[in-house]
Predict the 3D structure of the following.
Amino acid sequence: MQLAPKTVSTLKAIVFLLALVPLARLATGALFFPDWLGANPAEFITRSLGDWTLRFLLITLAVTPVRKLSGWHWLASFRRMFGLYAFCYGVVHLSSYVAFDHVFDVVAILKDIVKRPFITVGFTALVLLVPLAVTSTNRMVQRLGAKRWLVLHRLVYVIAPLGVLHFWWMVKRDITEPAIYALVLAVLLGYRAAAKLKDRRRRARPAPRGPVAQPRANA
Amino acid sequence: MLIRRPTNILPSEITPQRFYARRRELMKLAAAGSVLGAAGLLGCDARGQAKTLGLQKLENVAKSSLSTNEPLTAYQHVTTYNNYYEFGTEKEEPAVYAKRLKVRPWMVVVEGEVAKPRTFGIEELLKFPLEERVYRLRCVEAWSMVIPWIGVEFNRIAKLVEPTSKAKFVEFLTAYQPDTMPGVRVPVLDWPYVEGLRIDEAMHPLTILAVGLYGEVLPNQNGAPVRLVVPWKYGFKSGKSIVRIRFVEKQPKTAWEKANPSEYGFYSNVNPGVDHPRWTQRKERRIPEYFARRDTVIFNGYGDQVASLYTGMDLKKLY
């Protein structure tokens, strides 16, 4: 499916606004409709922001496989937006924890980060997202050079598993939900591993017998 | 010379003589009215949120000096934010699914190391002299509420069955209804949910079997028709929908202990000095506040009454 550049930018604007809906819903609930957020609004907000951070991370990771499988190459231009949304939701998620759970007590927060593995991994994941967000502009891609930029952005393969682990270790007993995230992540990373393996095999395959094919120009 | 004419005063603007004469009295009345009105509003705010589900009312409920006078947590919050894993692990789920719980007929079997084992029908339990006990509830997840329970001291029931000298602990077994409980299809915990107390903890006047809250019988999600309430321990020690009470010699294996012994001990007394491995227990969030800024107090603030039960025990080890 090919789309005109104009259609793509319209679509992008729509998706941009849609991605703000979860945040807007929480803000509206907190300010005007306490019933929306239930008996423990702070917990609701923190968890919901965490959920959306993970969802945007997975959506970001889904862009390439979906693009390749569907041939919708215009999807590539959405990837940065999704990634930045993951970062944004992550920052607000962390802020709600800092404010609501610890009331800005820096010492208590540092202790928490060191002492509690699920906080440690969650915090690490978010910190690792910072360089990716910072280098997300076109200018930064140029400054770093595409090759180095790509290497740096492979960090997401560490960040996403850390994020899912953060959720898994947070849950008290029922691991159904984190398991679903883990499964989706496994599929998305598995696709890449399989693609790479296939690629390597294809390259390693001996040249077919028979008359040597002339390399095509501009192949 | 300019002569100012008085502005046009309408007859309707002139205070009639009968009000003018009483102006001081009337102002006092108005002031009193607004104060009363404000107090009324505040009263609604604190008490009540007392809009209940309109379940069966409990009559002749005595007040108790063991109640706290802290502001109550709204009925709505007490009944929609529950851990009752048999109906799902999300806190909103029990309020939705527990409607199906069958609470009549209901029998509570009391047996074990007792001279006179006995089965109580729920109607009998409701006939005991009931008291309102406003207790703080501190969940192991670091949130807390203030709940006006209605119930009877457990020791009154225990005395009727005459525990023998072998009765060192009390085991509380809760309802297991696979046809009404969607949560028990998943082995999240070892069903049925079992809780336990040492005999002196069970016999303590603070320990009650609750049959109601906010003046009415318990809603299903809060553990209808009869549940345990032990206010100085984390909430999960207060088992819901109890069907069997056993006086035993050996310390029972409780549900959370079996599920995760490194995180949940048998005693599970509220203790800010012993952190849950995954979060601090120093602070708590009083529902529905945003900020977890309240200091958690040892034994949930009931230390004066219960600390003596634990003299000589290392509460860091026996958490």
About this structure: Chain B is about 20% helix and 20% strand. Residues 35-48 of chain B have pLDDT under 50 and may be disordered. Chain B has one domain: 59-310.
